[in-house]
Amino acid sequence: MKTRELGSLKVPAIGFGAMVLSPGVYGDIDDARAETALRAALDAGASHVDTSDAYGADGHNERLVGKVIKGRREEVVIATKFGLAVPEGEPSRPFPVGYKFGELRVNGEARMVRGYAERSLRNLGTDVIDLYYAHYPDPGVPIEETAGAMAELVQAGLVRQLGLSNVTAEQLRRAHAVHPVAAVQNEWSMWRPVDADLLATARELGVGIVAWSPLGNGFLTGTVRNLGEGDFRHNAPRFSAENLARNNDRYAPIRDLATHLGITPAQLALAWLLHQDEHVVAIPGSRTPAHIEENLAAADLTLHPDTLARVERALGTFEAEGGTLL
User: How many domains does one find in the chain?
Assistant: First the structure.
């Protein structure tokens, strides 16, 4: 697969978002199916695996990733995040979000960062994290303080490259002044555009963009008509029954264009995203090996400028109904 650079890390243009492999995201899933999906992703070339200590209960997602990569660690770029899985008894501060639950609780205090990293290292069964993100900025802690503690992890050899997730352009600039940031991870897809100031700042500083939810939480596959019990997306306004029906109608021109091109809507969405910037990397997640291979094949698609223009014209005629996480 074509590769792109995040700091000193060379990663495939399309990696794998492992969050979907824990129960409670898109409904129930057992570990056997999750492990099969992740192995399929690695075998197909998605060697950049993104996880977090907050995905699944008690580090479930990290531990699952660690189990699957055992014996093939050298072929995998591991990215994980910290700040949401706050130990019992420690303080946390609210980070407002657009989902029904209203907020996440964050602790990005400098004194906590080393402990977060050591816990993730144990879960993952490795002695170094390739790309380590602050999952969300702590509203009560200057980003410079969190970044400074993260820089100490690099100096200690526990982390190779630093990342920030769900930050503003100003926060990226301030953290980058403390220690070089290799990647900033924010939502970006046909479903939701990236913040223009953040993109411009990342380009100026030479920071890569890792797009989470590049398929709009699965919506851009064109296959989501309703949600099952236990699906996390019930919290998202865009996936309410009424909004989901409206959004499916509005995105019909995009699905029709994909059919005309002989590719799937998911492949068009991913290829379009990769054409937006040479430093963007996508991390779609899937539980189905066939869908994983389908997604990864999008990295090899070249979209004609006329096709890109048609997509932009279509996207410019409507907005998705309902809010997103941020």
Answer: 1
